[in-house]
Amino acid sequence: MSTFELTLPDIGEGVVEGEIVKWLVREGDQVAEDQPLVEVMTDKATVAIPSPKAGRVIATHGKEGEIAKVHSALVTLEVAFEGPPPRPPAPSSAPPQPEAPGNGQGAKVLATPVTRRMAREHGIDLAGVPGTGPMGRVTKADLMGAIGRAARPAAPPIAEAPQDRRVPLRGLRRRIAEKMVRAKQSAPHFTFVEELDATELVRARDRVNQALEAAGEAHRLSYLPFICKALVAALRKYPELNANFDEAAQELVVRGEYNLGIAVATEEGLVVPVLHGADRLSLRRLGEEITRLAGSAKERRLRLEELSGGTFTITSLGQQGGLFATPIINHPEVAILGVHRIRKRPVVTEGDQIAVRQMMVLSLSFDHRVIDGAKGAAFTYELIRLLECPEALFLELT
Questions:
Q1: Is 29 an annotated catalytic residue?
Q2: Active-site residue flag, 372
Q3: What is the biggest distance separating any 2 CA atoms in the chain, rounded to whole angstroms?
Q4: pLDDT tens digits, residue range 62-75?
Q5: What CATH number was assigned to the domain covering residues 3-79?
């Protein structure tokens, strides 16, 4: 029989290491060909490393939470091994324990007849009463003390204090932490917050969904496809925001593509799949792609190319968005859009009338090294103008 050593493969995209997130096998396990052995988290995604051969696991290299370098050993297998049936455990050779003494007044317990009678009446086993008389005799005083202890109610158990629990920062959560720290340390953030009247946007979305339903389409659009359309139009007018910042060269790289990151909350943490070529997709295709990417993120089925190449990120804060937030830029991008939920509120219209309108707040964070406050504000108001008049998006007036 021979051994085979599985190493961390070259996953590409410049990945040189990965974190061992979860072992799926243990030493001694029989594994089949292509059976997943270990989950490894890279900068891009979590991948399951399969076994290239059938065999038995001799050793696993590295603990969960440790970093493995590309081409370093992960698992040692003994291939084509048929293990013997497990032997039953050897019988215990420990000597038999002596039986505990039973209740009753044995001859070895020294006590007077009166003491024995009182013990029987109160259900006290004299063998369990320490004697203080000559030669260990159990006296009447000894017995009365035992009777008193038996009649006294037991003290209530002392509640254990809650224990501290340490949760190691592993896998995706650790990668998120590292990326957030890097973004905050490298990019001086400033956040600009403004509200918009989304009444016409709500109506436009309702009309589109009604048309889709009439056409027999099962998919319904959220607000994100409309926001993506408006965002692409605003980025065309302010291309410096559709950019990455090259730290090494200290250069702003204005991107020619419009690849929008869509932040998705998963059980493991926030994942940002990238919607490539957003400018080339219709509203319906945008909606379908956003739904597909969100599902793949939650099921951990994203491909590496779906996690890279972003030029601008949207984070939808949903029903728990609060009044406003200060989103952290998705490094190396230079801006991020936070979208809050739509709420009905009374507002004063241009005709000085009070009306109930659908209001929404946008929170945008910018890298102040390359985006000035005036440009960030102008970009925000251009985005608001487009969302408040969604017909402009349909007519391609932008």
A1: no
A2: yes
A3: 112
A4: 999 889 998 999 99
A5: 2.40.50.100
